[in-house]
Design brief:
Elements lengths: L4 H16 L22 H13 L5 H13 L32 H14 L6 H15 L19 H4 L9 H9 L5 H8 L6 E3 L4 H5 L13 H10 L9 E3 L11 H7 L6 H8 L8 H9 L1 H16 L21
Antiparallel strand pairs: 1-2
Helix pairs in contact: 2-4, 2-5, 3-5, 8-14, 11-13, 13-14
C-alpha cells in the first residue's frame, strides 16, 4: 500500500474540493460541513450532550452508535432507513438477522432527535444525526475527529431484504471484499472501517462456530491463538448463554485506538471477519499489508478511518426532496 506524499496531496485536494462545495436543496445537492450553520447552529453540540449523558450509564453506547451508522449506510445509502419501525407491507431492517437483537442505541437517537426538534423543529434529519453521533462517539473514545458532511434527507422506505446482505462476522475475505466493492469502497476502506471493532462488545453466538465448529470441522479455527481460544471458550461455553457479551478488543475495550490491528497480528481477532483481514491467503498483498501499516501506526489508522467514514457517509446520499424528507420521528415516515 503506497501512502506516498503525492497520494496524500491528492487526498488533500479532494477533501478541499469537497469542503468548498456549495450546499443547496434539490436532486443534485451536495453534502457539506456547514449545512446547519444557519438553520440549526447548535445541532452538533445538542447531539454531543445527549451522547455524553447516555454514556455515563452505558459504556457501550459509542460503539453501538457507530454500528448503527454503518448498518444504515450499507443498505440503500445513509438515509436512516434502519431507524424505521415495521409497518404493514414494509418490514423494518431492524428485524433482519444482522440487526435483530444486536443493533442498539435507537432510544439515544430518539433522544437526540427530540432535543433537536425542540431547538429547531423539522430541520435536522435522522440520517445526519447518525452521521454526527458516529463522529462524536469515535472522538470521545479517543479516536480521530473529522468534518462530518451533512445535508442528507431521510428515506420513506426500509429495505429488509437489502439488510440481509450486510457484511457479516462469519464472512470470509472474498465475500467481504465483494460487499465493499459493490459500494465502490476499497480494500483500505474495508480494513479501516473494520477498525471500528476496536471498541464495543460482541455476543457469544457470533463466535461459537470459530470456537467449536469452524467450517463444519467440529474443531476450533486454526487461525485463532490457542490461549485466546481457551479464554473465549470459558466466556462462551458450547451450551452457554448465546447472548453473553465479550470485548471486541480485550486490551482496551472502550478506547478507540489501533489495538484492534495489533490483536489481529497475533491471531487474536475475535470475529472470523476480523482475522481474515490478516490470515486469509487472499489477504497477502491486499488487506494484510494495510493491517500491518495500521498496527504499526495509529496515526495512519486514524487518518484512513476518518477518510473512510467520509467515503461511507457519501454512499448514495438522499438529497432530493421529492424522494426524501426530514422525519419528525425517526421511527416513522411523516
Amino acid at each position: 500500500m503506497d501512502f506516498s506524499s503525492s497520494s496524500r496531496s491528492a487526498t488533500a485536494v479532494v477533501l478541499l474540493v469537497v469542503a468548498l462545495m456549495t450546499c443547496f436543496h434539490g436532486a443534485t445537492a451536495q453534502l457539506c460541513e456547514d449545512y446547519y450553520d444557519s438553520s440549526c447552529p447548535d445541532a452538533y453540540d445538542i447531539v454531543k450532550q445527549v451522547l455524553i449523558g447516555t454514556h455515563q450509564s452505558d459504556a457501550r453506547i459509542f460503539a453501538s452508535l457507530i454500528r448503527l451508522h454503518f448498518h444504515d449506510c450499507f443498505v440503500q445509502g445513509c438515509d436512516a432507513s434502519l431507524l424505521l419501525d415495521s409497518v404493514p407491507g414494509m418490514p423494518s431492517e431492524k428485524t433482519s438477522a444482522p440487526n435483530n437483537g444486536s443493533a442498539r442505541g435507537f432510544e439515544v437517537v430518539d433522544a437526540a432527535k427530540a432535543a433537536l426538534e425542540s431547538a429547531c423543529p423539522g430541520v435536522v434529519s435522522c440520517a445526519d444525526i447518525l452521521a454526527i453521533a458516529a463522529e462524536i462517539s469515535v472522538e470521545l473514545s479517543g479516536g480521530p475527529s473529522w468534518g462530518v458532511l451533512l445535508g442528507r434527507l431521510d428515506s420513506k422506505t426500509s429495505d429488509f431484504n437489502g439488510s440481509l446482505n450486510l457484511p457479516a462476522p462469519t464472512d470470509n475475505l472474498t465475500v467481504l471484499k465483494q460487499k465493499f466493492s459493490n459500494l465502490s469502497l476499497t480494500d483500505v476502506d474495508l480494513v479501516a472501517l473494520s477498525g471500528g471493532h476496536t471498541f464495543g462488545r460482541v455476543q457469544c453466538k457470533f463466535i461459537t462456530d470459530r470456537l467449536y465448529n469452524f467450517s463444519g470441522t467440529n474443531m476450533p479455527d486454526p487461525a485463532l491463538d490457542a490461549s485466546y481460544q481457551a479464554f473465549l471458550t470459558q466466556r462462551c461455553p458450547q451450551k452457554g448463554d448465546a447472548t453473553a457479551l465479550n470485548d471486541l478488543d480485550p486490551t482496551t475495550p472502550d478506547t478507540f485506538d489501533n489495538n484492534y490491528y495489533t490483536n489481529i497480528e497475533v491471531n487474536r481477532g475475535i470475529l472470523n471477519s476480523d482475522q481474515e483481514l490478516k490470515s486469509s491467503p487472499q489477504a497477502q498483498g491486499t488487506t494484510a499489508p494495510i493491517v500491518d501499516l495500521f498496527a504499526g501506526s495509529q496515526d495512519a489508522f486514524f487518518a484512513s478511518f476518518a477518510q473512510s467514514m467520509i467515503n461511507m457517509g457519501n454512499l448514495m446520499p438522499l438529497t432530493d426532496p421529492s424522494r426524501g424528507q426530514v422525519r419528525t420521528n425517526c421511527r416513522r415516515v411523516n
